[in-house]
Amino acid sequence: MKIGCPTEIKPQEFRVGITPSAAQEAVVHGHEVLIQANAGHGAGFEDHHYVAAGARIVETAEELFESAEMVVKVKEPQAGERRMLREGQLLFTYLHLAPDPEQTRDLLASGATCIAYETVTDDRGGLPLLAPMSEVAGKLAPQVGAWTLQKANGGRGVLLGGVPGVLPARVVVIGGGVVGTQAARVAAGMGASVTVLDRSLNRMRYLDDVYAGAFKTAYASSANTAALVAEADMVIGAVLIPGAAAPKLVSREQLSTMKPGAAIVDVAIDQGGCFETSRATTHQDPIYDVDGIMHYCVANMPGAVARTSTIALGNATMPYMLALADKGWRQACADDPHLLNGLNVHAGKLTYYAVGRALGMDVTSPQLVLKT
Fold first, then answer.
1. The pTM of the whole model exceeds 0.90
2. Catalytic residues, which ones?
């Protein structure tokens, strides 16, 4: 199979979909790998690294999309890239379709088969291709939140860990999954007073047992959430419903109860965000102010640490990429129901129910697609 990896064109996106080691593995499996010139530069991988791995460098995205049978990316295809997709082509990348009807319509119109990293599952009910970036984003969230809290950036001017005689900042993390756990670990490690809100008692027991009181937990009732958000210096949104739009857990009205200059970091912004006032921003212009509350809502946070993120993502995606290339998408998905859960679009049909619910679109069963 011809596997193509284009240069990411989303603003300030420095990651790349295929590492040189993944390219080498694909070549060993008998596939041809096409890498757009300078695709890996932002992550510290140069064209000669790919050539040494057996890949071929192509100059333009147009040439790559025209030649590749499978396109492997990081971020959702931008409008210009979607126009280059064609019927029968396989796209393997993050999609986050639930809050993005325009992208969804374009992918349906392309006739391509689109498998989303974020909805591939595993035997434990996890999301193995989302987890590495969730870990990165979770660890980054307190770091960028601490920067947002600086007075020069419009924040309260509060140091996360405080100093002797001065209390540390209060950090509230909404969601105790992968993102929330990593965010809480790092914020607590920076000296902040951290509370994690979740609705799973089993998850909260796990966090208490494993992290031995490094941070507190609380049940995420509406009343608890409102009270803790009002007291917080920083609120990190870390709620995920796989493939679906994120629930809005903090309203604009609640901003008036927060401390002036408090910081919101919405890690769920890829799925529409879990604050009513969230809108996607970029690394180039990451912060905005709503009613005196500073919002950090960068939609590709892991792109800030592109090398770490690229290697972590490549480690996770490589086995699935090889299965798709070795067997073709139909056989690979028939053999692995967890990979089939990643199928979001095929030949003009939407095949992921949570996206259909979010966008009010008809959905065809992925199992039915396999049979036809």
1. no
2. 96, 270
